[in-house]
Amino acid sequence: IMQDTKKFFENLSGAGKSIGVLTSGGDAQGMNAAVRAVVRMGIYVGAKVYFIHEGYQGMVDGGDNIKEASWESVSSMLQVGGTVIGSARCKDFRTHEGRLRAALNLVQRGITNLCVIGGDGSLTGANLFREEWSGLLDELVQSGQISEEAAQTHSALHIVGMVGSIDNDFCGTDMTIGTDSALHRIIEVVDAIMTTAQSHQRTFVLEVMGRHCGYLALVSALACGADWVLIPEMPPKDGWEEQMCHKLSENRADKKRLNIIIVAEGAIDQNNKPITTELIKDLVVRCLGFDTRVTILGHVQRGGTPSAFDRILASRMGVEAVLALLEASPGTPACVVSLCGNQAVRLPLMECVQMTQEVQKAMDEKRFEEAVKLRGRSFENNLNTYKLLSHRKIDAELPRSSFNVAVLNVGAPAAGMNAAVRSAVRVGITEGHTLFAVNDGFEGFSKGQIKEIKWGDVGGWTGQGGSLLGTKRTLPAKHIDKIAEQMRIHNINALLVIGGFEAFESLLQLVDARSRYEEFCVPMCMLPATISNNVSGTDLSIGADTSLNAIVEVRLNFGPCFMLTCDRIKQSASGTKRRVFIIETMGGYCGYLATVGGLAAGADAAYIYEEPFDIRDLQSNVEHLTEKMKTSIQRGLVLRNENCSENYTTDFIYQLYSEEGKGVFDCRKNVLGHMQQGGAPSPFDRNFGTKIAAKAMQWISKKLKEFYRTGKEKLDVVWDCVKSELIFVRQKIHRIPKEQWWLRLRPLMKILAKYKTSYDVSDSGQLEHIVRLRAKDISAI
């Protein structure tokens, strides 16, 4: 029955349709991935796809600026920053005459479907073009430039937008294409600056982009633990200069050797006057006498290779954009493809544009709290988390709860664990609790490796990889008596466990032991932190994003003479011609890294445990690559999850490909290994770990206060994620959740690699409406 209700995209045909794709406005990393997805999905469904070079200017000028794209023309585009088809700010398109010329150029090529990748200005222009389309065709008919028949054939223009903007300033989507990559550039610079700042005890004032939106400044401040941040949506209160200097001075007195202040380029005060980096530098030098330097990052934030997140986001949006164009009818309004959680959704373009404009209007009218809420829940959560962590209260101001909370890491290390510990410790202290750090997981717990951890002890932890507390895979059942004794000795009233499946199973064991040990009848909360992303009850785990970036970007050893990445492996292959690389990823039995990494790296195949395969599938993949090598691409990439098959090992697949491809292509193999667990955490993992740890500690505080008010002797509660109803035999053996959202991305990877496959689009096709926050709604929040 479920099968009958599903809708598959095979029923959608692009035959006879032509799609134009353009990038407009400021460039953003990931635009090329979006262009690639539009071209390949369009060709896959039988449509013609045209590059429109140089944005709207190319549409107005026509000629060679509008060229038909081929499958091979977007090869090796995925990992390139900027936009290879060019972008330009076009004055001509703002005129009626310019739009008339653009309409003629499109009709001459049969293009009635436009995919526009740009900011709100570019998308607004596209919508105006659509609204004028009928009138423009009438003018062209009257002037004799097109026939009546051509006007009827091309009577409707369909527009689908994708937001490409590093500022993340567009309402209706959680993230815009390019934002995550820009954060990578900022954090790379901040991490580098921190070393020199510590050496000389300097204060650095960094200006990041964001003329009208403070997202980059806010999230980078969270990700690096900045001392102060200034954004346009929330100007500092009067007297902020004294407060900032007091905080900088306080941090130096705490033996912190550096200060970081991050300023959005559009930062303003309560009177809408600009706050510049030079103003802040002069203030710090004058009031504190600190050696202060200014760094303006500028366009470096737009450059470089797109992050794994942006490649995946852009690829998903590009495919969804083509589906939206195939399903559009003459009355379908222009829509924008947005990201809501893990779902690609379609929203009315002008609703999003109007709400984006309302944010600026609210700021102009000094309604700053409303502006923050209009930015969306994600922005507001980031701001609230920063406020929670940034303002250290003196002991006299702290509430005293008399509760002791223990924090520990369990299982394999994952980048972002330290950011989570830092956040939990500081929020817990702000809530009035005494925090205890447990070294080496439950094994250390049983040995009494427990000590109080204070605010200053976790300074600088956000950007550190691995686990500074130490972590082991030991489960508590083995030492349950000693752990209960240590809980009693240190009077531990709550547990925060950060880790992967071992942490998940550890809390289940502690819950099972409650009937025998009343010490475990306390609030317990688990934060998922594992590169495998295989914990039930959560879509994402701390560390998974860093590992994905390691797969597609971070350098790895490949033999004694090479330092390569998946990107560089592909470049190496294209340089030597006809070469296929077989890459083994980690993940246990969970194929998340292989699948999502394959989508991000443009892999030809990804072998995982969840999707069984046999020798016939392997042979089919070899034949597919053999055909591919006859084109101008002549290189291939295959990913294999480490436990995808007991018999089809990496060596077996390498030898099979080498033998079957003999005379056509040669092969190389690489096992990425533990480098996927190492390195500094990505901005996403720093921010994710920081936010969910803060939420977890607030949850623990709430439960402890409930316990205190009711006067119960013990509290029997555990975070929902650990309820046994989510556990079943397959997960106990192979550590795989019942439902894995990312499996829906596998058909996309296959489609973009030119495999015939089935793709369920049941969730697509619905045009949703953006949630507006009216004044009365805001006052109720």
From TrEMBL:
Stretches the record annotates as C-terminal regulatory PFK domain 2: 404-781
Name of the molecule in the record: ATP-dependent 6-phosphofructokinase
A Pfam family matched in the record: PFK
All residue ranges annotated as the Phosphofructokinase domain in the record: 19-324, 404-700
Family, similarity comment: Belongs to the phosphofructokinase type A (PFKA) family. ATP-dependent PFK group I subfamily. Eukaryotic two domain clade "E" sub-subfamily.
Classification lineage: Eukaryota, Metazoa, Chordata, Craniata, Vertebrata
E.C. number(s) listed in UniProt: 2.7.1.11
Organism: Cyprinus carpio (Common carp)
Annotated Gene Ontology cellular component terms: 6-phosphofructokinase complex; membrane
Residues involved in substrate binding: S165, I166, D167, R202, M209, G210, R211, E265, R293, H299, V300, Q301, R302
